[in-house]
Specification:
Shape: globular
Helix content: over 70%
Mean pLDDT: 80
Number of strands: 0
Largest sheet: none
Structural class: mainly alpha
Low-confidence stretches: none
């Protein structure tokens, strides 16, 4: 069908408006900031430095395998020189945006009869679900793992091996349970074949 810039622009504007609503509706959370496990993760993120990249153990946060999250945090913090808490919040918003786009792409593949606005509404409902939306303002590794799993489903839907490898890398390097998930997902692919 070809790339339609006007259609892409409409979708992008819609998603950006939804993300702005998401952030603005929770401005009050900025006064409370991170608590419980999130504070432990944030404390360890503050310990990260560009030199951490040369030590695999240096990329661990709260003794978890967080290489994907840590690498992005170090890169962004080194480039922008902003507080690590805002870096993590920015990564969370970017991940939520990516999850919305993946959800929309999956709906395009499997719900072909639904129009694009209905698919976008379902994507927004997914993004505003208590689980996904609740993960936005905390530091946790489950959001990165969820992104990797959704990317896996997209790779399977598009039959894209490179995307499959990327999703496995992200999922494995998000948290220890991500490795178990990847083994299960790859096992499902083998059984499917």
């Amino acid at each position: 069908k070809g790339f339609e810039f006007a259609r892409f622009k409409k979708k992008t504007v819609f998603v950006v408006i939804c993300l702005l609503i998401s952030v603005l509706s929770n401005v009050g959370i900025f006064k409370t900031w991170f608590r419980w496990d999130s504070y432990i993760y944030l404390f360890d993120f503050y310990k990260l430095s560009p030199l951490s990249v040369f030590q695999i153990v240096g990329l661990r946060v709260a003794q978890h395998i967080t290489f994907t999250y840590s690498l992005f945090a170090i890169l962004i913090q080194s480039l922008l020189h902003i507080d690590m808490a805002y870096v993590v919040l920015g990564i969370n918003v970017a991940i939520m945006f990516g999850e919305m786009l993946i959800c929309n792409a999956l709906l395009e593949k499997y719900a072909k009869n639904a129009n694009e606005y209905l698919r976008m509404i379902f994507s927004v409902v997914f993004a505003f679900s208590p689980y996904v939306f609740g993960l936005l303002y905390t530091i946790n590794l489950e959001q990165v793992m969820l992104f990797g799993v959704l990317l896996f489903f997209l790779a399977e839907a598009k039959d894209d091996v490179y995307l499959l490898v990327l999703s496995a890398f992200i999922t494995c390097n998000s948290k220890e349970t991500g490795t178990v998930l990847v083994i299960c997902m790859m096992g499902a692919l083998v059984v499917k074949q």
